[in-house]
TrEMBL record:
It comes from the Bacteria. Pfam families: MFS_1 (PF07690). GO terms for biological process: nitrate assimilation. One of its GO terms (cellular component) is membrane. The chain crosses the membrane at residues 25-46, 87-106, 113-131, 180-201, 243-268, 280-299, 311-330, 336-361, 368-389, 401-422. Belongs to the major facilitator superfamily. Nitrate/nitrite porter (TC 2.A.1.8) family. Keywords: Membrane, Nitrate assimilation, Transmembrane, Transmembrane helix. One of its GO terms (molecular function) is nitrate transmembrane transporter activity. InterPro entries: MFS (IPR011701), MFS_dom (IPR020846), MFS_trans_sf (IPR036259), NO3_transporter (IPR044772). It is a multi-pass membrane protein. PROSITE patterns: MFS (PS50850), PROKAR_LIPOPROTEIN (PS51257). This is High-affinity nitrate transporter, putative. SUPFAM superfamilies: MFS general substrate transporter.
Length: 455
């Protein structure tokens, strides 16, 4: 795939190009998946009472929600390389809607746990989102495109925290019993996924030139290689940078997932808030993704323009330090108001760190993009699973938050350890300069000497 075919700018209010259609539909698809993934979380206080769940059982449910996503994210990257993001995302949306709707049929803890485990598979949607924007946008804007699409999609987690309690309230207002009401409420996210699946298949394509199947048949070289698949994944596994970002993403997105799962219950149990108020408080964390992830990606792009590729890793380190300190502050708050304020502060750093991570992913190994995206994405869920087991071991959510704050500080070192050879930086700089030259040529402006600072 030639660099010239990629979009060198983000035309936010346009759907006229394949890149912008992919941009908008990929964040919408991720939004639908994220909304469905955590739709159960704000309803857990009701579900807990119906099934008589213990703390250990709730912890198992939280772990199940993010545990299987590790495998899903590792697999989905190579599938994108092999079959293309269009077919992969459409199948994930359609198949993922089945357990989202199916959980409404659960009549026991064991069945509920099983469906919650299956729902976790749709968390792999994130990798497809990042993959699709990575192949559609040029190096000068790919960080912003990745962060914005992921951020707006991630906002589904905040929207579901705020919305699902009100959806349940609306159902209950019709005279339906609570044991039936939460089940009917789950139809909303399941139906949304099916609608978006149709839109994705109809209006997107795999890359700027078309779909992988057709391009391979025509002998056109694409980023996933001639065949894609597991050879690409092996190459990604052999790159130590993939594993450094695996750890950092576990410490930012993993903590984000953990907060989505426990925040509403935390505000109910610790500060005695009602379900709707706790949902609004928890939702404020997720809604930060509307802009904070994008800010992380934009900062990464701007710093790379001025100081080169290594600036992206330095930014990630700084954001993770801010996340760790903010989380330690949040863990010590004694009032609901201050807890929400502290959560917003550490949430800003957390979301920006997530955006800065995937602003760096496209530059790790272009020939193994799907594999790298899958490995790093899986790191987020490994972090969430580890946080879930930590909560079981510690037994107190507040103390668990404090330990996670220290873990984020330690993990920030891995960002600094991501370094590139001079040849790699020179190659990426050439692609970056070329993308900027194309953008200037399209705007009719003269091309300046030295478009970007050399790395």
């Amino acid at each position: 795939m030639t660099q010239a075919t990629k979009a060198t700018k983000i035309e936010l209010f346009s759907l006229s190009t394949p890149a912008m259609r992919a941009f908008h539909l990929t964040w919408l698809a991720f939004f639908a998946c994220f909304f469905a993934w955590f739709a159960v979380a704000p309803l857990m206080p009701v579900i807990k009472g119906e099934f008589g769940l213990t703390k250990e059982q709730i912890a198992n449910i939280n772990i199940a929600a993010v545990g299987i996503t590790v495998a899903g994210r590792l697999v989905i990257g190579p599938l994108c390389d092999k079959y293309g993001p269009r077919a992969t995302y459409t199948c994930l949306l359609a198949l993922g809607a089945i357990p989202v709707l199916g959980i409404a049929l659960a009549q026991s803890y064991e069945v509920f746990l099983f469906f919650r485990l299956l729902i976790g598979m749709i968390g792999a949607s994130f990798v497809i989102t990042q993959y699709h924007t990575s192949v559609m946008f040029a190096p000068n804007v790919v960080g912003t495109a990745n962060a914005a699409s992921a951020g707006w999609g991630n906002a589904g987690g905040g929207v579901t925290q705020s919305t699902m309690p009100w959806v349940l309230a609306a159902v209950l207002s019709l005279g339906v019993a609570s044991s039936i009401g939460w089940r009917l409420a789950m139809v909303v996210p399941g139906a949304l996924m099916l609608v978006v699946a149709v839109l994705y298949w109809k209006y997107t394509q795999d890359c700027p030139q078309g779909n992988y199947k057709d391009l391979r048949a025509a002998g056109v070289e694409i980023e996933g290689g001639k065949k894609g698949g597991w050879a690409i994944f092996k190459a990604a596994m052999g790159n130590y940078r993939s594993w450094m970002l695996f750890i950092t993403y576990g410490a930012c997105f993993g903590i984000e997932l953990f907060v989505h799962n426990v925040a509403a219950s935390y505000f109910v149990d610790r500060f005695k808030l009602d379900l709707q108020t706790a949902g609004m408080a928890a939702g404020s964390f997720g809604l930060l993704a509307l802009f904070a992830r994008a800010v992380g990606g934009m900062l990464s792009d701007r710093l790379a323009h001025r100081k080169g590729l290594d600036a992206r890793t330095t930014l990630l380190f700084a954001l993770m330090v801010g996340e760790g300190l903010g989380l330690l502050w949040f863990s010590r708050m004694q009032t609901a108001g201050m807890a929400v304020l502290a959560m917003i502060v550490f949430g800003l750093f957390t979301h920006m760190a997530c955006g800065a991570t995937y602003a760096l992913v496209p530059f790790i190994d272009r020939k193994a993009l799907g594999g790298v995206a899958g490995i790093v994405g899986a790191g987020g869920n490994v972090g969430a699973v580890a946080a879930g087991f930590l909560l079981k071991a510690v037994g107190d959510t507040q103390d668990c938050f404090a330990v996670l704050g220290f873990a984020a500080l330690v993990s920030s070192v891995c960002a600094i350890l991501v370094r590139f050879t001079a040849a790699h930086k020179a190659s990426e700089q050439a692609l970056y300069d070329k993308a900027l030259a194309e953008r200037l040529a399209q705007s009719g402006a003269p091309t300046p000497v030295g478009l970007a600072r050399a790395s």
